[in-house]
Amino acid sequence: MAGSDVLVSSSWFLVAGLIAIVVAPRIEATEPGLGAWKYVGGFVFAVILYGSVLLHEASHAVAARRLGMPVGAITLHFLGGMTAIEAEPKRPREEFFVAVVGPLTSLLVGVVAVGLWFITPDGLLLVAVEGLAGANILVGVLNLVPGLPLDGGRVLKSAVWRITGDMHRGTIAAGWTGRATAVAAMAYPLLQAQLTGVEPTILDFALAFIIAVFLWSGATAAMSGARIRRRIPHLVARQLARRTLAVPADLPLAEAVRRAREAQAGSIVTVTGAGEPVGIVSEAAVAATPVERQPWIATSTVARTLDEGLRLPADLAGEELVLALNRHPAGEYLLLDPDGRLVGVLTTADVDRAFREAAH
Ligand SMILES: [Zn+2]
């Protein structure tokens, strides 16, 4: 869908089953005598409903991709869907655009369904059209509530970001309204009882609780992510580079370690006869090799082959640096100048340490 894989979480089947059970009596009333088929009809209804959720998510994916952000899989879960966008938007406008297309798509589907409702004859199709109209308008409106992790929260985030020039401040603000939304969702059954006089059932409270937990944890995760990211811009790969020693790949490990100590190098890179780097020695692998064995094995046996993701530009910094490390998790990376000259080795341990120090 929209160039992304679509994953369906197991919780989705549970909810599809629940929807089937809830909708079945309505189907029975419209088309009597279906017997157990009414549950199949209910399940088909659930599939159609989630098809419209998929449209909502696909619109986020298409918008993000148009703005050059890589998009991962779309996951359907019990409270709707999620699109994995693997980059932060660079400008508030982009954040706004990617967020707002979702609810707008749902509202559009809802409006189209309302239009169809007028021309659809009585019967099961009308039940489906009615459901689509109601559900999509509800999803569209609720998603515009300005609190993270809802789309409206990202709209609010982009607005605060635009005004203050600080993305993280936007996230924190929208996180707080997201928490407030969670509290409101929790209190909703009581409010509803006040307004309508109908006693809420245990199911109402359970549903309100699940939604409140979903909102609260989503808002909290976004806020703590923002607090951490705030400290990241201080990180510059070049400043963390370890001095590195280049050795032939077949040099005995003990000799490579001895030379590295002598040269006060904090890392070892294996090179071809022509001096082209081919591997980075893993500190962990060296530590795991008994000292008495080290004279007898080639340095290349404890080196990780230099795949593309392990060669990083030395000037990588901040968020970009963290993203690059996340894309290709490893213990060591080779840092290179734009002209391909070897600058040194960046270790994840050093990045973690610098990060902790920056946090104080
Ligand atoms: Zn959305």
From TrEMBL:
<feature type="transmembrane region" description="Helical">
    <location>
        <begin position="202"/>
        <end position="223"/>
    </location>
</feature>
<keyword id="KW-0645">Protease</keyword>
<dbReference type="Pfam" id="PF00571">
    <property type="entry name" value="CBS"/>
</dbReference>
<feature type="domain" description="CBS">
    <location>
        <begin position="243"/>
        <end position="291"/>
    </location>
</feature>
<keyword id="KW-0479">Metal-binding</keyword>
<keyword id="KW-0129">CBS domain</keyword>
<dbReference type="GO" id="GO:0005886">
    <property type="term" value="C:plasma membrane"/>
</dbReference>
<protein>
    <recommendedName>
        <fullName>Zinc metalloprotease</fullName>
    </recommendedName>
</protein>
<dbReference type="InterPro" id="IPR016483">
    <property type="entry name" value="UCP006404_Pept_M50_CBS"/>
</dbReference>
<keyword id="KW-0812">Transmembrane</keyword>
<feature type="active site">
    <location>
        <position position="57"/>
    </location>
</feature>
<feature type="binding site">
    <location>
        <position position="60"/>
    </location>
    <ligand>
        <name>Zn(2+)</name>
    </ligand>
</feature>
<feature type="transmembrane region" description="Helical">
    <location>
        <begin position="67"/>
        <end position="85"/>
    </location>
</feature>
<feature type="binding site">
    <location>
        <position position="56"/>
    </location>
    <ligand>
        <name>Zn(2+)</name>
    </ligand>
</feature>
<dbReference type="InterPro" id="IPR008915">
    <property type="entry name" value="Peptidase_M50"/>
</dbReference>
<feature type="transmembrane region" description="Helical">
    <location>
        <begin position="36"/>
        <end position="55"/>
    </location>
</feature>
<dbReference type="InterPro" id="IPR000644">
    <property type="entry name" value="CBS_dom"/>
</dbReference>
<keyword id="KW-0862">Zinc</keyword>
<keyword id="KW-0378">Hydrolase</keyword>
<feature type="domain" description="CBS">
    <location>
        <begin position="308"/>
        <end position="356"/>
    </location>
</feature>
<dbReference type="GO" id="GO:0008237">
    <property type="term" value="F:metallopeptidase activity"/>
</dbReference>
<dbReference type="InterPro" id="IPR046342">
    <property type="entry name" value="CBS_dom_sf"/>
</dbReference>
<keyword id="KW-1133">Transmembrane helix</keyword>
<feature type="transmembrane region" description="Helical">
    <location>
        <begin position="6"/>
        <end position="24"/>
    </location>
</feature>
<dbReference type="GO" id="GO:0046872">
    <property type="term" value="F:metal ion binding"/>
</dbReference>
<feature type="binding site">
    <location>
        <position position="151"/>
    </location>
    <ligand>
        <name>Zn(2+)</name>
    </ligand>
</feature>
<feature type="transmembrane region" description="Helical">
    <location>
        <begin position="97"/>
        <end position="119"/>
    </location>
</feature>
<feature type="transmembrane region" description="Helical">
    <location>
        <begin position="125"/>
        <end position="150"/>
    </location>
</feature>
<keyword id="KW-0677">Repeat</keyword>
<comment type="similarity">
    <text>Belongs to the peptidase M50B family.</text>
</comment>
<keyword id="KW-1003">Cell membrane</keyword>
<keyword id="KW-0472">Membrane</keyword>
<dbReference type="Pfam" id="PF02163">
    <property type="entry name" value="Peptidase_M50"/>
</dbReference>
<keyword id="KW-0482">Metalloprotease</keyword>
<dbReference type="GO" id="GO:0006508">
    <property type="term" value="P:proteolysis"/>
</dbReference>
